Inverse folding.
């Protein structure tokens, strides 16, 4: 019986794996697992019901991805009947203007994804390598790709355009937006939980090691903080966020900084880590007594509050703010700091609710409501995979 859909959510240093059972009507998450490529040796962890596994992989960090996946599927086979796999869905960061939704993996789509690697050099090649490795191991299993950029295709050309020569925009230098699978998850969940408010003007703050915000109008993306690359917008764990382009020109021309060194600095040595000199983990900075740790948090929350205001201008108003992802879901102090900077706008937290990490974290009577809601990118991938399969079978 082919009733399992596996999902692979490839990040910068981890791969999250989801297992979903399809009963003919709905999807049910049966297990979740992951590979930590930042660990040495590599580690594989899995949760299935009450089962908890945390295993060391024999494959080294420099091992071929096919070897790593062969070992991972061997571990999975002890707990999941792999013959039940109906399809495998992948998160792919960049779909450019080519993909407006999920797509079946075939030679044509692989070539198109590969051609977009220049737009997402740190993420796209990893997703492609994973897709190709699974094709080699299980050529008979259909694979699909779900794109982070696709959710933002509803943004207007005015929002997507940079103030650069028009021919550059036509060549693809424009705002794309990311974390779309997360925003799609939140939009869908929020509609079920708050059917009236979800039709209004909402800003979602996806705050994790990578972080961005999205303006939703009736559940559709109309603006977002990330733009051409995953560097733009608010500061992140190790990424800079918005920066004056003149700084980059200065470093390249006056300081003789190489492109590789600049890339490393902007992606891996900036953000909370760069500002504090201590850590890119906001949890470590919140408990630190160092003044630079406090300053890094203050800059982080100030930029987020400012971006919420910018997105409210695009929306033409604001009805609600939703916090999600690792920081947004689990760090009340960060949420409180952001909302305090938005009090003038009408955001007022219920401190008890905020500390308890419940769904509504603002007073019921607030003009602008605030919520905490867990995202589920893997479920979105699984649902899109199923939709593609159903379309192909018609």
């Amino acid at each position: 019986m082919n009733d399992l859909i596996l999902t692979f959510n490839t990040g910068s240093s981890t791969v999250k794996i989801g297992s979903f059972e399809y009963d003919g009507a709905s999807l049910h998450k049966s297990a979740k697992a992951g590979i930590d490529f930042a660990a040495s040796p590599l580690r594989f962890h899995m949760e299935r019901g009450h089962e908890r596994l945390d295993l060391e992989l024999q494959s080294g960090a420099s091992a071929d991805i096919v070897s790593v996946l062969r070992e991972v599927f061997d571990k999975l086979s002890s707990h999941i009947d792999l013959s039940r796999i109906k399809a495998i869905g992948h998160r792919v960061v960049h779909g450019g203007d080519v993909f407006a939704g999920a797509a079946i993996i075939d030679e044509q789509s692989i070539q198109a994804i590969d051609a977009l690697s220049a737009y997402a050099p740190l993420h796209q090649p990893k997703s492609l390598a994973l897709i190709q490795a699974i094709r080699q191991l299980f050529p008979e299993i259909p694979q699909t790709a779900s794109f982070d950029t696709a959710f933002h295709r509803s943004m207007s050309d005015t929002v997507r355009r940079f103030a650069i020569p028009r021919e550059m925009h036509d060549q693809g230098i424009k705002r794309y937006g990311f974390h779309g699978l997360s925003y799609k998850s939140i939009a869908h969940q929020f509609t079920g939980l708050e059917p009236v408010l979800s039709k209004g003007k909402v800003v979602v703050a996806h705050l994790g090691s990578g972080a961005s915000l999205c303006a939703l109008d009736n559940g559709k993306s109309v603006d977002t903080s990330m733009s051409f690359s995953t560097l733009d917008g608010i500061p992140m764990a190790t990424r800079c966020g918005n920066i004056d382009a003149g700084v980059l020109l200065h470093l390249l021309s006056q300081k003789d900084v190489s492109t590789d060194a600049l890339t490393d600095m902007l992606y891996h040595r900036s953000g909370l880590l760069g500002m504090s000199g201590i850590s890119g983990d906001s949890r470590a900075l919140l408990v630190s007594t160092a003044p630079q740790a406090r300053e890094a948090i203050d800059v982080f929350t100030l930029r987020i509050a400012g971006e919420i205001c910018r997105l409210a201008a695009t929306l033409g108003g604001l009805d609600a703010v939703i916090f999600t992802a690792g920081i947004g879901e689990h760090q009340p102090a960060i949420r409180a700091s952001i909302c305090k900077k938005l009090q003038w706008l009408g955001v007022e937290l219920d401190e008890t609710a905020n500390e308890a990490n419940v769904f509504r974290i603002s007073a019921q009577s607030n003009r602008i409501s605030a919520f905490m809601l867990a995202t589920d990118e893997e479920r979105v991938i699984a649902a899109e995979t199923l939709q593609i399969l159903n379309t192909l079978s018609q």
Q: What stands out?
A: The two ends are 20 Å apart (CA to CA).
